[in-house]
Task: inverse folding
């Protein structure tokens, strides 16, 4: 064969044809009958040829690199005497057809009929035109292989039929984005589900009637509220009523697929509709909220469109428990909270695959694209410590976001959902005016989530009939859009007319449905039936023991010495053959000595013994953070690493998981590099699991700044607003050791500013016994309050900050620690220094150097709630003291000074003076220069110990 003839006979195996040949060959391997006869003969011949290099080739081997094999054989002229030459013109046309199919799967969404307002002409997409690939009118009635399509059971279709099937499937009311998914099985599953139905549902009359009922209820509630409570904010769902049909299908189809609990997070729009028409809240209760009635057991409460709710609903698949998370106005911040709550519920059930508990997040279009917590939460989805088996995302897409904005300024992406492509989640865009299509994609999305355990998105493209709220006039800024909206008859009317035209309903039946629903509202009756009233969920958490408990600092947290020694031995022992790092081996030896009482207990061992005794007593522990296994300052080493094996090859050992038989779980997770989403997740977890010690640890306390919204909106105010109790622990490393402005301060002042009504605990422990007791106290007391622990850095290895083992056995957490130097005579004390944290040890050393035996030093270990009785008991010992000085590392405008001074003042007697020794006020939390830090540190210690106090003084 000449070189020219050889090139012609094999050229179809190269270049842009390669993917087509590869796809044909893979289809042939799955089912030889699925490819045209000419190619089937071709591949049959191929099976009998030796592979390049003489290796054997089997039919069931992986064939992703098949093109390279073809190319090598083609160059070697291996096919020339065995395979008949294919008709190149037919092959070229077939390749064009395959390219057209691929284009519709990828780009059909851009031409889909998604906008109910039809404000813009559908764009021209050249790749969707057969002419783009050289296909002409003459080709329309020719038969081509419908390879890897699911439009027909036959192997072939005419191009005309194929083109119609592609347009019907990908360019009508549903626009699917899924070709970015790398898993071929997932892609083919979506293709089959869409193409086998032409993207068109086939519902019977009863199902269609139910869809109309959902639209009737959605529209009916909004119009009822609009007329009865004129001008009050409710964030109406009008224009997006198909969302209620979507959620009804989520609940019912979820029940059919084994879902037993659904946790929903959503912002304002449609929330009241969701409460009444999906969750079964009594309309009368909602109306009472509009009329000003409120719960008496909440100190503050919240607006009605922030409140959560839970109920047990009877579905087509059995009972399902629904929970709507409480949510502030910070839109998407509820996302990680829901995920954490779901993970806690799954853990409680042993639902490792996430088939029983489903997270559903409802988004607005602008917020979904605009808020970083969305990306952070998505990034958690497939990680081991935060995965929930996939989340169903629903976007109520107003196409404009906030109604005063210019759509050109709301995002930089084509679709508001483009962020989900980072985790390869499929997106089903759907026209909200086609409620059957909405229900169809809801089924599809839910089944995808259940099968692939992956996030999936439903983007309901709709509009907002009213403004951002009912006091807004959107036509001020969007005149043309709202002229179009004003002419829109409403989704319910369009669908009702369609069903009447189809003969599904009589002409007067839609109006009868409207009147019947309004009568229910007038009567204040529940709008969905049946709502289960006697169903008991055996996995529900009983919060009763934790409610209405009064604050107390006391708890019996001591553990017998024999138990401490036994458990200490267990957590310092590694399996035979497990090789630990020499530094870790030394640490284990030191801890073993501590457990035996031969050495004093440091912070790391005190923490470990607290964890070990709690899991032995049946309390699960979950601790997460960016370096929680080892500890940022290498003090924890909860996870040991075999030096001869990698961690993913069984190269780790966790002693705290091997404390005792039938112990509670101990989970430690090195989290993703996130603060906001991870802290929100852990808050949600703790709020759903009161018997678990849930801890989030910041790498440095300063980094909690990135999660401030979680602290403000949930952790510190959740109980006052919503009655939501939570025992979350936050460990925030804090200490001034000259590491600069971003590695010194956990912003104690911010937390103290948020303290009121015994809402949280702010504690700064200073030795090993204190951390042991405060962690145990968190679980043993019969109430749950968030605990903010300002944990140390340099004190982790400071021998002065250690405790005897007996203090763990016989002691308890001390909110205030008095003077410990027995040589200090209380009657001779002239100055009482009060402080908190690391500076205490600096002050002790400074006092020794200055020879000041007339100075007593008190430590406030619990800043809030302030322990008045404990402080007074220690402070009142020094009746002759004339000066009271608060000393802190932090600048004067930061740290506890402005919070603590009135507590000190209350305990002072007449004639005593109150002063401050510390850094001057500063815009930055700490200096960046070590020399300047050291200079400031010397100055504040000298000021605290000066014979004559030079700072300002307040006189009692």
Result:
């Amino acid at each position: 064969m000449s070189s020219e003839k050889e090139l012609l006979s094999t050229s179809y195996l190269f270049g842009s044809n390669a993917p087509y040949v590869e796809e044909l060959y893979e289809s042939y391997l799955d089912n030889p009958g699925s490819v045209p006869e000419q190619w089937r003969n071709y591949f049959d011949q191929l099976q009998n040829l030796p592979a390049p290099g003489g290796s054997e080739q089997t039919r069931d081997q992986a064939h992703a690199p098949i093109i390279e094999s073809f190319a090598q054989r083609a160059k070697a002229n291996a096919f020339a005497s065995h395979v008949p030459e294919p008709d190149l013109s037919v092959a070229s046309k077939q390749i064009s057809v395959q390219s057209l199919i691929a284009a519709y799967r990828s780009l059909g969404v851009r031409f889909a009929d998604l906008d109910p307002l039809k404000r813009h002409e559908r764009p021209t997409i050249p790749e969707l035109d057969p002419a783009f690939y050289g296909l002409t009118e003459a080709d329309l009635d020719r038969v081509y292989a419908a390879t890897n399509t699911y439009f027909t059971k036959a192997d072939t279709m005419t191009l005309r039929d194929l083109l119609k099937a592609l347009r019907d499937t990908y360019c009508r009311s549903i626009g699917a984005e899924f070709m970015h998914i790398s898993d071929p099985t997932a892609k083919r599953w979506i293709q089959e589900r869409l193409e086998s139905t032409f993207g068109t549902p086939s519902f019977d009359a009863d199902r269609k009637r139910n869809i109309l009922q959902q639209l009737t209820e959605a529209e009916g509630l909004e119009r009822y509220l609009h007329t009865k409570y004129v001008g009050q904010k409710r964030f109406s769902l009008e224009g997006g009523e198909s969302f209620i049909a979507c959620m009804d299908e989520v609940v019912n189809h979820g029940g059919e697929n084994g879902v037993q609990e659904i946790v929903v997070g959503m912002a304002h729009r449609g929330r009241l509709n969701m409460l009444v028409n999906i969750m079964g809240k009594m309309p009368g209760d909602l109306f009472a909220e509009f009329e000003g009635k409120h719960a008496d057991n909440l100190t503050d409460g919240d607006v009605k469109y922030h409140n959560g709710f839970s109920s047990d609903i009877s579905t087509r698949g059995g009972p399902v428990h629904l929970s709507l998370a409480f949510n502030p106005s910070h839109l998407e911040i509820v996302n990680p909270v829901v995920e954490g709550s779901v993970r806690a519920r799954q853990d409680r059930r042993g639902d490792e695959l996430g088939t029983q508990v489903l997270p559903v997040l409802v988004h607005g279009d602008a917020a979904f694209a605009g808020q970083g917590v969305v990306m952070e939460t998505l990034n958690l989805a497939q990680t081991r410590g935060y995965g929930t088996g996939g989340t169903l995302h629903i976007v109520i897409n107003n196409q404009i976001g906030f109604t005063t904005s210019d759509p050109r300024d709301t995002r930089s992406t084509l679709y508001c959902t483009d962020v989900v492509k980072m985790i390869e989640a499929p997106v089903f865009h759907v026209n909200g005016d086609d409620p059957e299509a909405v229900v169809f994609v809801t089924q599809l999305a839910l089944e995808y989530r259940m099968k692939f355990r992956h996030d999936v998105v439903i983007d309901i493209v709709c509009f907002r009939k009213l403004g951002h709220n009912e006091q807004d006039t959107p036509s001020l800024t969007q005149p043309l859009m709202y002229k179009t909206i004003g002419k829109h008859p409403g989704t319910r009317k369009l669908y009702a007319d369609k069903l009447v035209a189809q003969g599904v309903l009589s002409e007067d039946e839609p109006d009868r449905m409207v009147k019947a629903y309004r009568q229910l509202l007038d009567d204040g009756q529940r709008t969905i039936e049946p709502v289960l009233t006697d169903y008991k969920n055996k996995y529900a958490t009983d919060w009763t023991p934790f409610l209405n408990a009064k604050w107390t600092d006391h708890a019996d947290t001591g553990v017998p010495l024999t138990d401490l020694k036994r458990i200490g031995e267990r957590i310092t022992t590694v399996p035979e053959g497990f090789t630990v790092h020499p530094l870790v081996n030394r640490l284990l030896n030191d801890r073993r000595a501590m457990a035996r009482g031969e050495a004093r207990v440091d912070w790391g061992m005190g923490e470990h013994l607290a964890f070990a005794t709690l899991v032995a007593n049946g309390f699960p522990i979950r601790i997460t953070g960016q370096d929680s296994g080892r500890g940022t300052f290498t003090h924890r080493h909860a996870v040991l690493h075999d030096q001869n094996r990698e961690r993913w090859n069984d190269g780790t050992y966790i002693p705290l998981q091997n404390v005792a038989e039938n112990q509670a779980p101990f989970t430690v997770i090195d989290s993703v590099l996130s603060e906001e989403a991870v802290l929100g997740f852990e808050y949600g977890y703790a709020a759903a699991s009161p018997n678990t010690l849930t801890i989030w640890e910041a790498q440095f306390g300063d980094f909690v700044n990135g999660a401030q919204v979680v602290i403000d909106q949930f952790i510190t105010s959740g109980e006052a607003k919503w009655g939501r109790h939570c025992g979350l622990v936050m460990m925030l490393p804090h200490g001034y050791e000259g590491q600069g402005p971003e590695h010194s301060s956990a912003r104690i002042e911010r937390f103290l500013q948020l303290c009121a009504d015994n809402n949280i605990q702010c504690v700064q422990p200073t030795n090993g016994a204190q951390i042991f007791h405060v962690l145990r106290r968190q679980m043993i007391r019969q109430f749950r309050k968030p605990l903010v622990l300002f944990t140390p850095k340099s004190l982790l290895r400071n021998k002065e900050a250690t405790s005897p083992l007996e203090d763990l056995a016989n002691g308890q957490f001390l909110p205030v620690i008095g003077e410990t130097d027995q040589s200090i005579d209380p009657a001779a004390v002239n100055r009482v220094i009060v402080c908190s944290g690391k500076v205490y040890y600096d002050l002790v050393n400074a006092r020794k150097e200055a020879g000041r035996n007339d100075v007593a030093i008190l430590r406030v270990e619990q800043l809030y709630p302030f322990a008045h009785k404990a402080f007074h008991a220690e402070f009142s010992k020094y009746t002759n003291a004339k000066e009271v000085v608060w000393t802190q590392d932090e600048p004067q405008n930061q740290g506890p000074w402005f919070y603590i001074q009135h507590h000190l003042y209350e305990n002072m007697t007449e004639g005593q003076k109150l002063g401050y020794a510390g850094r001057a006020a500063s815009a930055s939390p700490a200096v960046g220069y070590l020399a300047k830090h050291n200079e400031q540190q010397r100055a504040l210690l000298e000021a605290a110990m000066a014979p004559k106090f030079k700072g300002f003084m307040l006189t009692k």
